[in-house]
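Submission checklist for the structure archive. All mandatory fields must be present; incomplete records are returned to the submitter.

[x] Identifier: Beta-ketoacyl-[acyl-carrier-protein] synthase III
[x] Organism: Actinomadura rubteroloni
[x] Residue count: 349
[x] Sequence attached
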Amino acid sequence: MVLAPAKQERGRCNVSRAAVLQGIGAVVPPRVVDNDELSRSLDTNDQWIRTRTGIGQRHWTDAGTTTGDLAAEAGQRALKSAGVDSVDMVILATSTGNQVMPATAPEVAETLGLGRVAAHDVSAACAGFIYALSSAAGALAIGGAERVLVVGADVWSTRLNPDDRSTAIIFGDGAGAAVLRAGDADEPGALLGFELGSDGSGRELAQVAGGGSRELSAGRPPRPDDAYLTMQGKEMFTHAVNRMAESSQRLLDRIGWGVEDVTWCAAHQANVRIINTIADVLELPRERMLVHLDRVGNTSAASIPLALTDAAGAGRLQAGDGVLMTAFGGGLSWGSTAVRWPAMDVLSI
Ligand code: COA
């Protein structure tokens, strides 16, 4: 499909084009780690994990598989779903990139044979995919791109403390991707708006403390534990519920949707009790919440595209459905967007 370039008046920025969802795809690594396997090395059990989180298993990468590898595979699937083999921008949301520098997105673009396209990473933890969608929408709106591949990918298994039962049971690896093209706001698939926020005062609630300038400029030897993800689960739980519910409500108000317009809500898949409480606060029937974490755990930046791909691939999520997406994570950072689901082929995960 050939798109007209953004119409631009001299000295004036054109912001009239919408970002339209054209394809979606996702992947998890093959190795399944179930709750019983974790219970053999940690003081935990299947019943506790299922009851307190809703998670039954997660997928972890084998040695040698990187975040970039998963991102490229998800990207390939999204391109196939969109029926295209080129984009002019790649945005990768991740907090577990292949290395500290450079960004991983250029490597993903290269792996996919996309040429010398614009490519950069977005770091917003579990809210990263929504932030990356918003960056893509901005680029499309001003004519900086005609088509963008947005990927959310994380491999947290490499940064989990094997002795920390509060994180090791939760996180899984995965990647999900979407192709967005420039189009009109009234087309099916158009992203209808964004609501984003952050609160840096809560940055220590979920963090990898080491590896950055804070640690390196302190002039003390790095502590091995600083390489691990740590999380204050109870505080994060409360923030997750409040921030996602508030953000969702603000977004719905802004775009003029009531709860009856929400066929499905794809909320960040951190804990099924968080998902259910958001439903209750928004007065959405719980059956309208997509739940995928039972099979993949919390896949961080990949969680929303994985949940959407799972539901679309299984035929539950269908063309015309109203979809609310909302995410929350370290930073603290959060965000929401919504879309009327377009007709498209989706490969099952
Ligand atoms: N297995 C068995 N017992 C566990 C356990 C585990 N894996 N983890 C904690 N416990 C124990 C605790 O030690 C505590 O025991 P105590 O009462 O004897 O002190 C008890 O279970 C309750 O611990 P608590 O931390 O209050 O559990 P919780 O119900 O809050 O569940 C999380 C812990 C991490 C699952 C939950 O807080 C959570 O999902 N948080 C949100 C994470 C999130 O939203 N992240 C968002 C961005 S990534």
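[x] Structure attached
Curator remark: Residues 13-183 form a domain with the Peroxisomal Thiolase; Chain A, domain 1 fold (CATH 3.40.47.10). Confidence is low (pLDDT under 50) at residues 1-5.
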